[in-house]
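Give me structure tokens for this 79-residue protein.
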Amino acid sequence: MEDNLVTLIEKIIDREKVIGKDVGVISYNETPLKKIILNGITTISTDFKLMGEKAAEIILNKEQAHYAVPFQLTLRNSL
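Here you go.
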């Protein structure tokens, strides 16, 4: 949740640590804000469109299946 990310960043700043040097930060799921704050927060995001498509396919075909949805790592200055 975004609130948790804000709380984490506040605690890091309060302790006078430098993100990307003293502390690394990785967040789930890309948002436009994560490209900007603190010169960029590294994110790990899943392909939600593909996840929805596969879930619908499994339901419509009345199957029981497992499918590994790929993820994308976006490296930024927070590491």
